[in-house]
Design goal:
single chain, about 325 residues, alpha/beta, about 15% strand, globular, binds ligand G3I
Length: about 325
Amino acid sequence: MTALLLGLVVAAAATPAPTLRDLAKRHGMTISTCVATSALEGKEYQAVLAREFSALEPENELKFEPVQPERNRYDFVAIDKQVAFAKKHKMAVRGHTLVWHHQNPAWARDPKMTATELRAVLKDHIFKVMGRFRGVIGTWDVVNEAISDDAHMRHSLWFDRPGIGLDGEQTIEQAFKWAHEADPKAKLFYNDYNIETLNAKSDAVYALLSKLKQRGVPIDGFGMQCHLDPQFDKDEAFDSFRENIRRFKKLGLAVQLTELDVRIPDGSPAQLAVQARIYGRIFQIAREEGIKWVQLWGFTDAHSWIPQAFKGMGWALPWDDKYQPKPALEAIRKALE
Ligand code: G3I
């Protein structure tokens, strides 16, 4: 082998593979992941996060209960650690979430709370939390999962149990208006799950967001969570996903993939191959459909919500629990080349 060729081979071997952050940037795409502050202490966790991702989103640290555990007592310690890490590594921060039926503090769920009081509580919360991160958090999931699995408005503390004196839809409209007042520069999203393809639930979300847009409600985008499993590995699912993205974009909404993970029943080569195919095609469709923000719900199997949420399922992320790349990572890289 000539010295020149040898030199080229050595140089190529020494050149690190492009990071997800580099590859995504070529398509004007932000590659993000949710982060648990407790995991952020780990050196390997920090290294992969800073190297591979251009943004982060707190997995739990900005939800209502962690941030306002007692009325008018706010706790930003955990989220501030993530914001500091993001700043140090030139990463964007995405906010999650202001209005949700989960993780609301006991004091707000007290049956003695009236709709009038809850209206003031919700408005104060939105203004206080968004106001504090104005210029730091550029995109927010203002409302999360308002449509139930049977495709109707979900019953929730903020909507009708007892709600804030409006019906569910009006509450959503009011929340977005408050959010826009609290930070006029922020991009405001509605976020939901099991709405990735054309189905009754995504139709209900489509109808809701169409109405809000027609009424001039300040909503900028739709977050498709993308918590997937091997069922998605079918051409008709991917085609339906693409059509669904297109119809929401036609409403004038940005579409982001916000909580992507692909759970599998074991870590066998066969299941890892199915998982890789799904990740690869999701990223390929995201690139082709001009999606500018793709966010994983974690990046290492060492920190994933799946095993305790879906008994027997796991191995959902592109790095394994020893921070080693899995076939899914290679498939994502190929889709972004
Ligand atoms: O922080 C408390 C801790 O003090 C307490 O000792 C411990 C045991 O009770 O609970 C801890 O809170 C847990 C929290 O995660 C932080 O670890 C909650 O119980 C637990 O329910 C919560 O689970 C989170 C779940 O949302 C519910 O908020 C998951 O980590 C998180 O991955 C999951 O993420 C959601 C998105 O926000 C919205 N889309 C669906 C997605 C999956 O459910």
